[in-house]
Records
---
Amino acid sequence: MDALLEMKGITKRFGGLTAVDQVDLIVKKGEILGLIGPNGAGKTTFFNILTGIYRPDQGNIQFNGTDITGFKPYQIANQGIFRTFQNIRLLKDYSVLDNIKLGLFRQTKAGAWSSIFGLRRSREEEKKVAEESWALLERLGLTDLANEAAGNLSYGNQRRVEIARALVSHPEMILLDEPAAGMNSEEVESLSALVRQIRQQGTTVILIEHNVGMVVELCDRLVVLDHGVKIADGDPNQVVANPAVIEAYIGGQEVTEVVGD
Ligand SMILES: Nc1ncnc2c1ncn2[C@@H]1O[C@H](COP(=O)(O)OP(=O)(O)OP(=O)(O)O)[C@@H](O)[C@H]1O
Ligand SMILES: [Mg+2]
């Protein structure tokens, strides 16, 4: 098996709360893996561990044959792992194009400002950055919005710009945290097509999503977290039919509907 990512016994505690509890995960190169689970299950925390925002209290992370446990975020980026955030993090007053260019530089120590204002870069570098960013805009169908302030875009398009910003570095692996949140069904379909295209270009994808219909349709495999524990891992259709998974979702939901007479 061609394991790109191998995580073993990953545990993260916040005080008395175990947000991620002894999770093992293997991701194969070229896979689209869906990570699902009820609110508070530990999904985003899992991404924060994988991207070096948190160091796991226990466990080990191997990526591409390198032990990356405890790596800082920029070191993780240097390994080719990029992400989007559950709460969109764009510079709202800057253009779509500038936001994407930023993706090429924020993993370096040179910093964000020099990238926006073109400091410390040669003309050739500047040209290359502009070309790469523009090519991505074309690929994502965002060229008409290139000079628009990111904050003026629809929710769905802002999420696409976030994905573009992660893609501009040609990631080995991309982590998408609820990319379909706030999208209508048409936008969700075009997002799924984009994710398939990303995989086709050789990037491995992990996707956190509450839209179960979308993940079953799109993902090669689903992993389910509940209270930080991995409760299922396998074929999407089988996973969503698994009684423990159904219970995890229903158990967390308040019953608001009253059957009256
Ligand atoms: N920095 C933190 N400090 C303390 N508790 C935290 C912190 N980050 C997350 N938690 C807690 O860890 C648990 C898991 O949170 P996490 O955000 O990972 O869940 P999630 O599965 O992404 O949920 P959602 O679907 O709502 O985004 C929650 O109980 C949350 O309150
Ligand atoms: Mg989350």
---
Amino acid sequence: MPGTQPPMSIWAQAPDYVTPAQRPPVGTPLAPHPSTPTLFTPLQLRSLTLSNRFAVSPMCMDSAWDGLMTDFHLVHLGSFALRGAALTIFEATSVAANGRITTGDVGLWHDGQIAPMKRIVDFIHAQGQHAGIQLAHAGRKAGNLPGHDPLLKRGVNDMATVADGGWPEDVWAPSAIPYNATYARPKALSTEQVEGLVRSFAEAAERALKVGFDTMEIHAAHGYLLSEFLSPITNKRTDKYGGSFENRIRFLVEVIQAVRAVIPETMPLLVRISSTEWMEWTGEPSWDVPQSIRLAKLLPDLGVDLLDVSSGGNNADQKIVIHPYYQVDIAGQIREALRAEGKSMLIGAVGLITTAEMARSIVQADGTLAGETDGTVEVEVGTGQTAKADLVLLARQMLREPEFVLRVAHNLGVEVKWPVQYGRAHFRGAKV
Ligand SMILES: Cc1cc2nc3c(=O)[nH]c(=O)nc-3n(C[C@H](O)[C@H](O)[C@H](O)COP(=O)(O)O)c2cc1C
């Protein structure tokens, strides 16, 4: 940075540049008081303090080249931090080259992938916000094409051939059962390979530390490798990683232990699960909410600080019973079950959270629940007693509206810090 050093009261310094400081971080209430909605109160996760309860849910963008993040990711992820998300969780980041969902996925399987990612984390930190990474392996759902080619009529649901840059002969799963006819035919991992993948997660976590992340999330949801092991439908193994509940969760438990062992005691660890694979309709054994609750009760003692409650994605013929609270309610159920046993692990809610009132009510004890909404109209229908979650994770709403945090604050009547550069653009009026 040429020229004289600017006064640090005005400027925040990132390793490669200075930028106007956002003090307090954008999205922080300027005059907090006892009646400030919980949504705009801090959340403490070990040494990490989030200034509000909004997190950007991980979202694959299929825009990486050989697993490397690019300027696209800087603009995309940076915009959420700039506009008030206290935590931005980076997309599913593969711990192995053949664990990418698509050829456009991000990875951390070699040291060269650290620097492009660090640039983005540094930007987020310069905004006074926090960054998390989701560590993942796609298992049998690996090796597809990114995006959608309207001419070829092929895309994310189709296997990438070798000519496409794919690896159809190098796709692995707990058992040799394909997801469907358009995905690769996976091979069953040996016991030694599973143990090797535990180490891959730990090595990727070590690289993520070098990137500078504030927290990490282990991706054990959506039918990717770790969730394939949890399910009796996709895990037909006869070794120590298959069969009983204890055996099916073993791989996840070992990954948690391995990651926890390399990250500092002060760093929070998150886990995302599919709380049900929505296969109850078959009448056959499947991963379901009771097993998720059983798993959740074990996690605090393993050093997990927050369970991010998602669902589905493991079976092409899942039948989801969909309504605005279809996932949030399960999060609430798990939270209740934990609290009933005095377990203190925090819960993240995700899925179809689109309005100020819905976001508010999810984390607010004794709050008012929002009813059905078309995304613009908010209807209050009753009084809830307990919060369903501690953190709200947002995916598609953030893509539609990266300034969602600022609009929610305005609509709930909370005066929050705006980006200094956008100070003249405050929302005006009763609700927007
Ligand atoms: C474009 C896109 C990419 C996604 N990629 C991921 C991902 O990398 N990891 C993950 O756990 N979930 C992923 N998801 C799921 C979201 O994180 C989120 O759980 C889901 O979209 C429901 O939240 P929403 O209703 O706010 O979109 C993705 C969703 C979208 C829309």
---
Amino acid sequence: MHAITNSGWIEVITGSMFSGKTEELLRRLRRAEIAGQEVAVFTPAVDDRYGEATIGSHDGRSWDATPIDPETGLEAVFSACNGEKVIAFDEANFFSHSLVDVCERLAADGRRVIVSGTDQTFRGEPFEPLPQLIAVAEYVEKFRAICAVCGEPATRNQRLVDGEPAHVDDPTILVGAAESYEARCRHCHTFRDD
Ligand SMILES: [Zn+2]
């Protein structure tokens, strides 16, 4: 692809679960739509909580999105995009590391790229590719939720299995399993390591 202008850039919206990332993404997409800008939204095909072809926040608003395979489907973004100036990726923590290169190429091509996803695993470790995207982005916004235990600002994803903290050796990505999540602060966040 050839750059059509130098005005492309990358925006990252990150933070823990329940911090309002997708609400913020939807807000930005609406602003672009009101300005008459064409928007393309991609979501990892693993996440069908809100139906295959939409992104949604917990408050029920949604936006049409194109589901793509998070490991092998990213090249399809280039054929799926037409003239859109605004390209968004939701749940970006489910995508492979190739997302970094794809976002860089889209920005170099003059697009505004908006990426939303959590930056920490349930263990509280950096959750690629978000940390890499944060490093190369022009704009980064990190949101906090409210700790479900103590009410202080929360940056961490507490994974629970049958109401108990998950084990540290559990896989990082679990989709459709019986686990649940809470937002918690550093102090209240925990996992089993026995
Ligand atoms: Zn707390």
